[in-house]
Amino acid sequence: MRPAGPVSISILAAVLLLLCAVWPAQAKDRDQLTIGITQYPSTFHPNIDSMLAKSYILGFTRRPFTVHDQDWQLVCMLCTKLPTIENGLAVPETAPNGKKGIAVTYTIRPDAVWGDGKPITTKDVLFTWRMGRQGQTGILPIEFYRSAYKVEAKDDKTFTIHFDKLTFDYNAINSFDLVPAHVDQVNFDADPVNYKNKTAFDTDTTNEALYFGPYVISETERGSYVVLERNPKWWGEPGPFKRIVVKIIPNTAALEANLLSGNIDMIAGELGFTVDQALRFEKRHGKSFQVLYKPGLIYEHIDLNMDNPLLKNRDLRHALIYAIDRDAISKQLFGGRQPVAQSAVNPLDWVYADDVKHYTYDPKKALELIVNAGFTKLEKGIRHHKDTGEALRFEFMTTAGSKVRELVQQVLQSQWKAVGVDVRIKNEPARVYFGQTVTQRKFTGLAMYAWLSAPESVPRGTLHSAHIPTETNGWAGQNYPGFNNAEMDALIEKIEVELDKPKRKAMWKRLQEIYVEELPVIPLYFRAEAYIMPKWLGGVKPTGHQYPTSLWVEEWQAK
């Protein structure tokens, strides 16, 4: 499959007219903010599937118990006080498994209510926890719900979570996203295994009772837009706009055209322009817009399906990375603003180790490894195995419509072809790609996308063998390559419970060494986010990590 060609001016004009007719009209005053992003969520359920488009939109409508803020500090949002061992709200104890655990007590804000006015209580906490413990529902993250073996409700607003291990981030329950018991419990109890297909978040998305942030979702058009209205039950500072419209424009050329025509006001940094596109846009139109660049913990990479017989061969995995010139991609496509990644750990993170193996562009080394693996026959430029005749061929997938990813694909495809590797491109819309193909490990070879993480985020979900997605666990794992390494599993277990930072840093170094040696993933580069905003919009503060700017929308203002 070839990437889509350039859009003609006449076709683009027709598309823009159609978009204006289909989408809600933009207000002439500043009661409305219209934002462009490139993907539509595969689901609106906060605990099913990992997708940035969903996190960004739900950031306007919900608040986590705890979160890392713009300064990378852990803070309370839905809770009243951050529990610590020092303040007595976190108490080490012996868990049922005989190991050191911890009991952590949180109090829900007394003024916190769902969008229908019903108080957020420990009933919602107990229901969400029970749902996550079920094990076949597809609720994430599976390790949180496994480790949280007991939850006690002290009263309507206070609860204690008992964890079966004492981790260095014992009080961070960022991913414990509440689900309203009075709305969705009936759907879950009726059929837990198929709950993900029956949740109100997808069958009744505009139900205000699902939300408890400054905004509620009032209208959706699948694949096209999401409309958010102010939440009259919100307890904090009111949202700065009566209405926020998030328009989904997968093609970045059309995204720019919509911005210049006034059909949208801004392009979200989380899911909009790549750095190279933003740089070109800034040269042409920088005087009319604010352009902000935020480097951060965003890791563009290629998952390798370890069930593929060819990719089981570590030498062939090494050959794939030696055959590509990642430095040239960084310099020529991104002006050096997006540095080559040597592993999944960003140099901005304190646990980064610089003295681990770095792969350089070495096509001779790549070819040597390929030949040593038995692919000595060359037919029509493609390597074939000397005994079986099998072609050295892989399918390469990513999100359709992402201009930069499709360009990177073509560059990599060409470089791999130079050493006899035949790579076939097959891309899909983001909601299919992330909703099924990656999540259920349906890709057969290579899958390119990005992970976003918090500071010192232990990669249990993405690298531990217990988190390989299967039908049995409801496809809840995020170890999409299917990586299974006993030493990596043990390291992850040890890092989580090591409270001494120097000892933990040494373990992190060994984790990175295993990662680059075993290479279940090809690291590409660390992305920077580019925010394109109108000059009249203020208060938007990029975080540089996985938690989106929308979580602080009440701080935005029309100047």
- Nearest-integer average pLDDT: 93
CATH class of the domain at 9-63 and 205-294 and 529-558: Alpha Beta
Described by strand count, sense and barrel closure, the largest sheet is: 5 strands, mixed
Helix percent band: 25-40%
Number of strands: 20
By CATH's scheme, which homologous superfamily of the domain at 9-63 and 205-294 and 529-558 applies?
Periplasmic binding protein-like II
What count of helical segments does DSSP give?
Answer: 16
Structural notes for this entry:
- The chain is of the alpha+beta class.
- Strand 15 (393-397), helix 12 (403-417) and strand 16 form a beta-alpha-beta unit.
- The strands form six sheets. Strands 8-9-10-1-11 form a five-stranded mixed sheet, covered by helices on one side. It has a five-stranded mixed sheet with strand order 16-15-17-12-18. It has a four-stranded antiparallel sheet with strand order 4-5-7-6.
- The chain is globular.
- The protein has 16 helices and 20 strands.
- Among the domains are: 9-63 and 205-294 and 529-558, D-Maltodextrin-Binding Protein, domain 2 (3-Layer(aba) Sandwich); 66-182, Dipeptide-binding Protein, Domain 1 (Dipeptide-binding Protein, domain 1, Alpha-Beta Complex), CATH 3.90.76.
Summarize the structure.
The protein is of the alpha+beta class and 559 residues long. It has 16 helices and 20 strands. Among the domains are: 9-63 and 205-294 and 529-558, D-Maltodextrin-Binding Protein, domain 2, CATH 3.40.190.10; 66-182, Dipeptide-binding Protein, Domain 1 (Dipeptide-binding Protein, domain 1), CATH 3.90.76.10.
